Amino acid sequence: MKTLDEIRKEIDELDDKFVELFKQRMALSKQVADSKRATSTAVLNSSREQDIIDRLTENEDEINSEYIERLYRHIFELSRDYQKRLLEK
């Protein structure tokens, strides 16, 4: 059995990776905002968001599906907020 410190070390390593991936995702959100500006497209695309959630939860159990959906709802909210901020400039 792993010690609490070992488990926390693994969590810290995953968090570091998660932040790097999140920064990459937000950089892509900036590109999306640029594209939406050029095409006068609305920031919110509910069907796209639902398609992503459906894809990510398709093979997950009920508990994982719930938490994945909750996580991605927050990520989408942050992404939309970032895009709106960029489009207001």
Number of strands: 0
Gross geometry: flat
* Strand/helix succession: HHH
The low-pLDDT segments are none
Assembly state (oligomeric): single chain
Cα Rg: 16 Å
Largest sheet: none
* Structure class: mainly alpha
Output the number of helix runs: 3
**Strand residue percentage:** under 5%
N-end to C-end Cα span: 52 Å
User: Roughly what is the average pLDDT, rounded to an integer?
Assistant: 97
Relative helix content: over 70%
Question: Can you walk me through this structure?
Answer:
The chain is mainly alpha-helical and 89 residues long. It has three helices and no strands.
What is shown here, in short?
The protein is an all-alpha fold and 89 residues long.
Throw out a few tags for this protein.
3 helices, 89 residues
Give the SSE map:
Blueprint: H1 4-39, H2 46-57, H3 62-88
Helix pairs in contact: 1-3, 2-3
